[in-house]
């Protein structure tokens, strides 16, 4: 059963700065030379997570360590949460060093009864405007799946065999997970606290943040294709785990690219669709 809730609608506005120091740290995390970036250069498309962090007070942090969505959302009584997907439209470049106005709101909340229990699907919309332009430079929708406490049901998808041949492999480790969480001011414990991830949420290991997996995809796209993305859409189908190789496959269809991620057991865990101008 699905029930669509009317918009919560409260618009939250914030001042953000695309700080060179933070951009240099993202570069360092990705093993890119930080000295190749300067004020006035364009923020690489895919790196906007540093401008979309929540700034919740410590007293507002959820029991799972998640700082919240950065916009008011009533307590839905669903203590667990995973990123379901994102959809981004890049309209203009964001200059490094620029000041931005960020507008965020809950766009939609749907409630579902599923085999795993109650679920809410929450979509939040962010716009980033450079101060001198009336139209947003970037519009991003993020969908979070909120769930009841972990049951006996394992959240790990069934094994399907080996990863596909011809894929590029990347293995996120504890350090990468920590640095991504720190740069996004995200203290969710499934990415940082192995005992919590296993014992409280029932995962086999630390879960790779879907935003980090997306960043690894967009970096792969930047290096292999080199064209500017105009849109990207992701869907997270199964969790990816720390210290396990992720296999990335990329296919082109005209001006669109489809990237898929498989875990070390061959489970298709994520897909990303990219278009270019
Ligand atoms: C936290 C956090 C950030 C993160 O990045 S967490 C890591 C990244 N995300 C994931 O690893 C999620 C991977 N996906 C899953 O584990 C499963 O898909 C999930 C979400 C547990 C749902 O699986 P179920 O088997 O329990 O449910 P169903 O597949 O039957 O779906 C039930 C309804 O939910 C809708 N739905 C499912 N997945 C998504 C999705 N990715 N996006 C949007 N909607 C989704 C599905 O359509 C079903 O609805 P129907 O109307 O079709 O019944 C951080 O920032 O800290």
From TrEMBL:
Protein name per UniProt: 3-methylfumaryl-CoA hydratase
Domain FAS1-like dehydratase: 74-131
GO MF, one annotated term: (3R)-hydroxyacyl-[acyl-carrier-protein] dehydratase activity
PANTHER family referenced in this protein's UniProt entry, alphabetically: HYDROXYACYL-THIOESTER DEHYDRATASE TYPE 2, MITOCHONDRIAL
Class of this enzyme: lyase
Superkingdom of origin: Bacteria
E.C. designation(s): 4.2.1.153
SUPFAM superfamilies to which the protein is assigned, alphabetical: Thioesterase/thiol ester dehydrase-isomerase (SSF54637)
Family annotation (InterPro entries): FAS1-like_DH_region, HotDog_dom_sf, Mitochondrial_HTD2
Keywords, in A-Z order: Lyase
């Amino acid at each position: 059963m699905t029930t669509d809730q009317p918009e919560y609608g409260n618009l939250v506005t914030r001042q953000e700065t695309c700080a060179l120091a933070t951009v240099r740290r993202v570069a360092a995390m990705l093993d890119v030379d930080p000295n190749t970036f300067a004020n006035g250069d364009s923020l690489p498309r895919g790196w906007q997570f540093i401008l979309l962090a929540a700034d919740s007070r410590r007293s507002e942090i959820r029991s799972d360590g998640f700082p919240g969505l950065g916009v008011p959302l009533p307590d839905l009584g669903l203590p667990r949460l995973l990123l379901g997907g994102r959809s981004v439209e890049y309209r203009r470049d964001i200059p490094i060093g620029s000041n931005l106005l960020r507008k965020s709101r809950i766009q939609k909340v749907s409630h579902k009864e599923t085999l795993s229990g109650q679920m809410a699907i929450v979509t939040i919309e962010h716009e980033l405007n450079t101060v001198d332009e009336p139209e947003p430079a970037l519009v991003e929708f993020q969908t979070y799946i909120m769930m009841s406490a972990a049951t006996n049901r394992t959240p790990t998808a069934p094994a399907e065999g080996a990863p596909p041949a011809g894929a590029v492999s990347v293995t996120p480790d504890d350090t990468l997970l920590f640095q991504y969480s720190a740069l996004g001011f995200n203290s969710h414990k499934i990415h940082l606290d192995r005992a919590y991830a296993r014992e409280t949420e029932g995962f086999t290991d630390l879960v790779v943040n879907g935003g980090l997996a997306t960043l690894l995809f967009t970096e792969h796209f930047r290096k292999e294709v080199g064209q500017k993305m105009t849109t990207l859409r992701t869907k997270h189908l199964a969790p990816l785990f720390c210290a396990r190789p992720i296999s990335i496959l990329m296919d082109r269809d005209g001006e669109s690219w489809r990237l898929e991620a498989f875990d070390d057991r061959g489970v298709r865990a994520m897909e990303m669709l990219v278009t270019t101008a």
